[in-house]
Amino acid sequence: MNGARAVLATMHGKERALAPLAAGFLGLDPRVAEGLDTDVFGTFSRDVARAGAPRDAARAKIAAAFRLMPEARVGLASEGSFGPHPGLPFAALNRELVLLIDRETGRELIGHHATMATNFAHDVVADVEAGLAFAAKAGFPGHGVIVMGVLDGQPAPQLALFKAIASEAELAAVLSRTIALTGAAHIETDMRAHRNPRRMRAIRRAMIDLVRRSRSHCPGCARPGFAMTGRVPGLPCAWCSGPTHLTRAEVWACERCDHTEERPVAALTANPMHCAECNP
What confidence tens digit (pLDDT) does each residue in 102-160 have? Predict the structure, then answer.
């Protein structure tokens, strides 16, 4: 693919995270798909629901980008999701996926990154001062915020929705207008990449993972994309040799041929402090 034209399926500045790595490490010639409206595939502000899983949305973006740039051989798109951390109450998690599709071969490469380094948050406020305090905590205006109406205590973008808020004065006016209209305002961090520097860093990390996978070939079928997909607990305790919760092996797998391997970690034993028997 060296020198191949690559179309970037973005309208929110993600080329800042994707293009340098695509050019420098994959040898691609990346260009943004001008005129592409990725909001039709889903928005964080709930006015357009995402259909399917993140990978499905990324595929749909690339297909649309290919239609705008038919000469491109490669398509690149990212998709992010935010929500509660599955294992840590009250903590938020940002998951990022970057997908590469080679149009000639139909092959896909995927990169992932998950991080708690996100300002993902929301609140319902009844006065302007509370909304401004939320925005300041989120890092506004460096990090964007979105304001929408409220109906029965839930966000109602169909009643009011403001995204491109640039200053504290503009935010105060939007909050005042929304509260007067719906009795309260739902305010949340803007998770679009061009309005959220933390998310842009996460997208870059997912692209780095894709580059890493592109250089990892499956021992079974020799195709790129062989990657770690899980961990096996049970590293034995140094004192009693019983299993601990620490990882004893990594699971590596290929999406194409389903070849899997267990690769032992470097450590042979675990510190007894991690053992339920020796350190109850």
Answer: 999 999 999 999 999 999 999 999 999 999 999 999 999 999 999 999 999 999 999 99
Is residue 113 left, alpha or beta, with left meaning phi > 0 and alpha meaning psi from -120 to 50?
beta
127 and 172 part of one domain: yes
**147: closest CA among 169, 123, 129?**
123
Instruction: Quote the CA–CA distance of 28 and 30 in Å, as a whole number.
Output: 6
State how far the Cα of 202 lies from the Cα of 67, in Å rounded to an integer.
Answer: 28
Distance between CA atoms of 189 and 167, rounded to whole angstroms? Answer: 14
The reply to whether 220 falls in a domain is: no
Nearest to 178 by CA among 121, 217, 130, 234: 130
Q: Do 132 and 113 share a domain, yes or no?
A: no
Residues 129, 91 share a domain = no
- pTM for this predicted structure: 0.90
- Those residues whose C-beta lies under 8 Å from the C-beta of residue 260, and which sit 6 or more positions away, are 251, 252, 253, 254
Amino acid letter at 57?
A: A
Structural domain of residue 238, as residue ranges?
227-274
CA distance 226 to 241: 32
Residue 275 CA to residue 280 CA, distance in Å, equals 7
